[in-house]
Amino acid sequence: MPELLEVIELGNPILRQKAQPVQDVQSERIQTLVENLLITVKEANGVGIAAPQVAQSDRLFIVASRPNLRYPNAPMMEPTAIINPRLLAHADETVTGWEGCLSIPGIRGKVPRYRAIEVEYTGRDGKLHKQELTDFVARIFQHELDHLDGIVFVDRIDSTQDLSTEREYQRLFPG
Ligand code: ZN
Q: CA 84, CA 128: separation in Å to the nearest integer?
């Protein structure tokens, strides 16, 4: 049975480590981790979660964009496991948008990201995928990829003026 995992928070040194490549996608450990991340991100109203956020230093994350309480305008997509991802190319254009993080509860920040990216990753079936992503889904991908390199969104903001508490953010953008 899949189980909800504890999400670790900023200050835990595991979040600052560089995660290790997944060697065997089909292993029971990795397949179980994917299952557990899928239900954990859903329960937490997230749109993505990376293995280091549950204290597993593996190059693996979930992108699961869907409208929810924390992101009412997120586009709908099938939750996808992204294993050993690589950023192949990106547009010059960056866009600044609000992000939050399950590991930094109560804080939102305006973060610049590439608007369009070309990526390669292994799916949970072990197959290699190559894809172009844009806008919000590209933003999630870049946020989660950063987690695999020990980077969190507050490292990417231009100024601390671009931070907001969750409560003030909800006042700015009432759902
Ligand atoms: Zn995060």
A: 10
